[in-house]
Design goal:
Layout lengths: L2 E5 L7 E7 L4 E6 L4 E6 L5 E5 L4 E6 L5 E5 L2 E5 L6 E6 L6 E8 L7 E7 L12 E6 L5 E8 L2 E6 L5 E6 L4 E8 L4 E10 L5 H4 L1 E7 L5 E6 L3 E6 L4 E7 L5 E7 L5 E6 L6 H6 L6 E4 L15
Antiparallel strand pairs: 1-24, 2-3, 3-4, 4-5, 6-7, 7-8, 8-9, 10-11, 11-12, 12-13, 14-15, 15-16, 16-17, 18-19, 19-20, 20-21, 22-23, 23-24
Amino acid sequence: MPVEIVVKDACVTVGEGPHWDEASKTLYYVDIYANSVFRWNSVTKEVQKITIDKTIGFVIPSKKGGVIVGLGKTISRLDWDSKKVTVLHEVDQDKQTRFNDGKCDARGRLIKKSGTVGMENPPGIIEKGQGSLYSFDTDGSVKKHLENLDCANGLAWSADNKTMYFIDSIPRCIYVFDYDINSGTIKNQQTLIKFEPGTDSILGVPDGMTMDTNGKLWVAFFFGGRVVQFDPDTGKSVSVIHMPAHRTSSCCFGGTDYDEMFVTCSRYGCPEEELSKYPLSGSVFKVTDLGAKGNPAVQFEG
């Protein structure tokens, strides 16, 4: 599985949240602590950047225009041309948190699953139990589904929309829930994979996640320098992509046939020794010859 550079030195802190937009042949991604959102045009190779005034945890194009971003503790709409930001909702007013990963479910409408996480200080050290999992409806309503999370992260849904997968990074767990696509609610939480102590020095920490058309999960491992494909029926790994960056953060399928994988990573807090070994830390990569394809990412309906 060849790995190539799409945008070298794309991010100065934590590259995250890749989202492929088929209509524009564009990859969106964020640089969390640089308060920046990007879009890379795969045809022209142009990179556009907007910097705002708070951390940005995710970016999702909206069918009503602009993009929806997890801006600090807010869900906000960003108009790309005017750079105008409109706050739609704020959460966790009594906590020092920020939005982290976020995706739309298959209805795209209403429910966007988003997780919060405590602020990192110093880099890589997060106050535990501060995170929650929310959904945001196009009518403006917000639901809290889970709380006392350490680091709400990767999300994915099964093809029949009856199952949702969710990562809480610090306990190193992938959870599975029954999902109701009509109400956007979850129930019957179970642990799909619990990465045992002692494996963290090799695998690292599970971070962003996506699913292929065969129902297999692909998980980026922070401090692991890899993306691992798992079979959710068995919980076993199927294949591994070794990345030229230690702090691999997230992944998504894209390209014309959705047979390419885009991978983000971080250089936030990297010591000189690590940067010497992984000089491409902070870049965005593309992986080909995966033997798998993904589905189009869902836009926000609101």
